[in-house]
Amino acid sequence: MTSTVKNTLTNIFSFFNNGGDHYFQKKRMVISSTDAWGVLRKDLIDTLGIQRAKRFLIRYGWNCGKNEARMLKDMVDWESDLDWLLAGSQMHQIGGRVFSYPEHFKVDMGKGIFDVSGYWIDSYEAKQHLHHYSLYHEPICYFLIGYGGGYTSECLGKKIIFKETQCVGKGDKQCCYVAKTLEEWGSEIDDELINYEEQDIADELDIVYRRVERQSEILHVGASVTKNLTSALLQGKGMDDFAKILANDLNLPVLIQNQYFDYIAHYVDESRPDVQQYNRGEIKDFIEKQFSKHVLTQTEPLEIKPNQNLLISPIIIQNDVYGYISIYREGSVFGEAETDFLERAASVCAVKMLNERTAIQTEVKMKGDLLEELFKGKTDPASIIKRFCYFGYNINQQQYVLTVEFSNQNPFSSFESNAKDLKSAPKQLMNFFTREETHYHTTFVRLEKFNKATILIPKEYLQKKKTSIKQFAQHCYDLVQSNHGSGPIYIGVSKLCTDVGQYSKRYKEANKAIEIAKAKNRLINESSSGVVHAEELGHIMILLDARKPEELLDYAHEFLSDLKAYDERSSTELLRTLFYYIENQCNLHKTAREMNVSISGMRYRIQRIEELMNVDLSKATSTFEIQIALQTYMVFNLL
Known about the structure:
Blueprint: E1 16-18, E2 21-24, E3 27-29, H1 34-48, H2 50-75, H3 81-94, E4 99-108, E5 113-121, H4 124-132, H5 142-156, E6 160-166, E7 175-181, H6 182-185, H7 201-234, H8 239-250, E8 254-258, E9 263-267, H9 280-291, E10 300-305, E11 308-317, E12 320-330, H10 336-376, H11 381-389, E13 399-405, H12 411-417, H13 425-440, E14 446-449, E15 452-458, H14 459-465, H15 469-481, E16 490-493, H16 503-523, E17 530-533, H17 539-546, H18 549-570, H19 574-583, H20 588-595, H21 599-613, H22 620-635
Parallel strand pairs: 16-17
Antiparallel strand pairs: 1-2, 2-3, 4-5, 5-7, 6-7, 8-9, 8-12, 10-11, 11-12, 13-15, 13-16, 14-15
Helix pairs in contact: 1-2, 1-4, 2-5, 3-5, 7-8, 7-10, 8-10, 10-11, 13-15, 18-22, 19-21, 20-21
């Protein structure tokens, strides 16, 4: 510098008049109002369109920032290059463009690191845009973006891109920016780089033409997907057709799965060279691993392996995920167009599934009504067999009657009305039977009423599954018990039904088994769940079937009424003690331990029981009769 006075950013801003021209030191300056600049900006947008005007304004701002950085480099005696860099923000304020306030500042001039974010307060560009136009859907401070990038790039010696994240011009409370080097941005800024390329009008028109052509192609594909899938839906075609239509329209493999990740439909053109790495089983396992622990609620892109991309969308019915549809591509990642196409296909699949579900629910309801008639035993069995045949079901096959009772007052109506209750025990149980029907190619006729579900379990199915009815019932219990937290659950299982005329009897057996389980729980003061099989009830079930209930109850009263009356008068537990004693095969010590009574106290109780009942409990005949009486009381809820 030739001057002896040290130049600073402040003292070089002394303008002087030289024949009507204004100078910034030796640089001639032109002062213009923001309103005039706003009119110029409006004319550019009206003439070129906002996207092309955006590119012109960004490049103009870039060159302005770059030139001012070069100019200030030589004009001011900077203490450091960082001061020179920071002067860019001051130039915004001095020029009346905006007040720039950095919030995050990570800069190393020597290492070429630049990671800055902050606020632009009172942007002239946003104000002028809103003066001439309404709110825009994206940030519009194009000059400021370009100026910031041009100025800092000149200072740092490497390309820096500014990106506006919030803007008053699109309705935000303030304008915010983020600035990084190209390396730090990575692929995130790729779509913006075209705005910085120097091109003439012909090149820009060519780019616009290609974009329009691309948009036209996207619209054509989208219309084709919608038209073809809708047509297939109206013609009653299935998921296989949907998969093939979507695969042909997009030229991509398509996979459709249910909510348990089982295949519903699948299509891929094996002759395509760009799907050589496509492995349906591998993709199925990948999807199941990704979403088995959390539910997918919106379309999501995934990378299976490097260069292998998957786009998956949930098939949602009434806020419930009923399946997944996915497309696969090698190379480039999926964009917004593919997401839109896939979501359209998912919507059509949802309508198809809803129709099928409605039809299935109607059929299940009709079968349940027939089953209820069968259980009542008031309809001609031949008529029932014939009506079940209309559904393609052989009701005359060997089956077990399995009844599940929930503690909820009416869990089936509640989970039908509340589609968000994805983990309710009744729903888990019904979903289990649906999966088993698909996997074993069988059918479960079921009746869902109040707090009970009654299901016919074919013997042939158990043989396919290689399990017994006891093991199967226990599995059902474990499934519902883990998803039911509001009380005990009981499962009653009948004996094998070998003839259609036995269903009424078997239904009563299953329900009696539940009542006996509940009575036992009341007797021992517990609230546990359980599985009870009619075959395990022995002679009490035979007697309940063979005699009139009132006669059997009179028989029990002869043995136990005096003892029950004594307990009520004296507040003792002799009847309960007798039940434990008989259940433990008259083992005094074991009974005392279970009831937490001393041996001497137990001996006294047994002696008192024998006196009141006038029986000898050491005789087998006496204990057998008493056991029948006790179990009768238990069935009639008298214990």
